[in-house]
Amino acid sequence: MAAERIGVFGGTFDPPHNGHLAVAVNAVHDLGLDRMLLVVANEPWQKVGTRTISAAADRLAMVAAAVEEVDRLEASDIEIRRGGPSYTADTLEELATAHPHAELFLVLGADSAAGLDTWERTDTVKALARIVVVDRPGARSGVLPPSWDGLHLEVPQLEVSSTELRRRAREGRPLDFLVPRSVVSVIRRHELYGVRDEHGASD
Ligand code: ATP
Ligand code: MG
Which of 1, 56, 93, 175 has CA 20 to 30 A from 162's CA? Predict the structure, then answer.
């Protein structure tokens, strides 16, 4: 039997959006993945102190809603269960232990890939996963720091970011067609990003 192929796509997902989903489904397709884990960072240590980050449980609820009806995509709470700052090296170690025969693919947008050398325990990351870089509007194409090897995947370029979505939400502008409807519902129900739930609990 062929080894299971598991994708790992980590993020803060504050909120998850169609750019993330386009990356995830295209990675499943192009790499022939059996499963693609959208791993919700518990504590995105490189962002802490730079802005307010939504509660991990809210971000997990949004990712779970986003992947609900999408084959092979799964919301992963592995970093939330572990607690503390989220290091991909720890996550890959846990996954490699739980799935000793699987091949792990770490999927990153070009902006994240450019910062790989700033990560914790990069030797572990290099040893445990194949790196897969996707382009992102506004980021330099296909960049990997010198000592890294990886694949480059062509995916649809959607110019959307969580930062822009948080700003839109605060300004009362629509998020529709930039994030799945199910995510808009969670944002309303949990009253995230200053959005008020005008329909109350019956929505
Ligand atoms: P923020 O603006 O808060 O940083 P973000 O939109 O960059 O949010 P993250 O949760 O930081 O989302 O990103 C998780 C992963 O998804 C990263 O590897 C990032 O490069 C990638 N990514 C995010 N948006 C896109 C996009 N539109 N196209 C390709 N990759 C993306
Ligand atoms: Mg980002």
Answer: 93
